[in-house]
Specification:
It is built from nine helices and 15 strands. It has an eight-stranded mixed β-sheet. It has a five-stranded mixed β-sheet with strand order 1-10-9-12-7. A two-stranded antiparallel sheet has the order 14-15.
Length: 335
């Protein structure tokens, strides 16, 4: 059975100036009525190259505790490397449909990898205004090139180059996040998988939508991984929940957006918070983003670190294999 892609639905919808009912969110989710308009959140911006490491650790710990989200600049990923990653991703989504379908996620496959539209069990049968491409980019032993586009021809090189820089950034962040909890610099990375930590890239493609007031690119969620490192294109759309209200997040060119995910919240016993966020869509322009999810191996047990648990601060979360956590979250089963 052929799956209907949002890109095709968008083309038809724009000509009719309406969207199918399954994309229309309930009133308490619709961006028009739930966004705080005229107010853009100034989320913490952290200079990762600041020579005062102690200051950086404190800023990251504060942002992770209060926001679960921050932007990093001076991260040493050259702008041309980011531009190349974005260019080849955009070129893939602009290919004829039959060429993209070659990389479609196989039916009944448990892996997330591949080109697709539906990701998880939909609440109230509602659909998100997005198509995506998932594939692992690290470690090399887990890469399945079946899901890496061969067109454009420079796709592989651009992704490998970006991965090499990104891994250095991720290691630095995990070190600082660990120190911010009063732990040794290696303890967080070790507990979430060490060198077996898996890097899963997702390209989100949000085509223009005639009713951006009613639809969402991605519904409200926290990321189920450890943390997410994301670069968007220049079309705004990321929103963060603060005190039960939704705010737009300011776009900063070449900044990396860092989301604290569920596994770091669990590991920190709630000191760091996974950020509740969602994505809106645009009437005129295509929004794209390139999140990389850092995931523990599926049999890695994640729970509050023993040093962060005592009589006065008991464990707030169960220890669980990451694979079991993932299954429950995607199928909306209570943890």
């Amino acid at each position: 059975m052929e799956v209907e892609r949002v890109q095709a639905i968008a083309t038809l919808s724009m000509s009719m100036n309406t969207i199918p009912h399954e994309f229309i969110r309930s009133e308490n989710e619709q961006p028009a009525s739930t966004t705080v308009h005229g107010s853009i959140l100034e989320v913490p911006i952290i200079d990762l190259n600041d020579p005062d490491e102690e200051k950086v650790v404190k800023l990251i710990a504060k942002a992770s505790s209060e926001w679960g989200l921050f932007l990093i600049v001076n991260h040493k990923i050259p702008s041309e490397v980011i531009e190349k990653l974005q260019r080849v991703g955009k070129e893939f989504f602009e290919l004829p449909q039959h060429e993209k379908e070659v990389y479609a996620k196989p039916a009944g496959c448990k892996s997330m990898e591949g080109y697709g539209t539906k990701l998880q069990k939909e609440v109230e049968g509602k659909k998100a205004w997005v198509d995506h491409l998932f594939h692992k980019i690290w470690p090399p032993s887990l890469i399945n090139y079946q899901f890496w586009p061969k067109n454009p021809p420079s796709y592989r090189e651009a992704n490998e180059q970006y991965t090499n820089y990104l891994r250095e950034v991720a290691d630095k962040l995990l070190k600082y996040l660990s120190l911010g909890l009063g732990l040794e610099e290696h303890e967080m990375k070790e507990a979430i998988g060490g060198d077996n930590l898996e890097y899963l890239l997702k390209i989100n493609y949000y085509p223009p939508c005639p009713r951006p007031d009613l639809a969402l690119g991605v519904a409200a969620h926290t990321d189920l991984c450890t943390m997410t490192l994301l670069v968007p294109n220049d079309v705004p759309g990321l929103q963060v929940s603060r005190d039960g209200q939704w705010f737009d997040v300011k776009y900063i060119p070449n900044a990396l957006i860092v989301h604290i995910g569920d596994q770091i919240e669990i590991f920190s016993n709630g000191k760091y918070k996974a950020v509740l966020h969602r994505t809106t869509v645009n009437r005129q322009k295509t929004r794209m983003s390139w999140p990389v999810f850092l995931e523990p191996p599926s049999d890695q047990v994640i729970g509050p670190h023993p040093k962060l648990v005592d009589q006065g601060n008991p464990a707030k979360y169960k220890s669980k294999k990451f694979g079991d956590y993932l299954y429950c979250k995607l199928n909306k089963i209570p943890q």
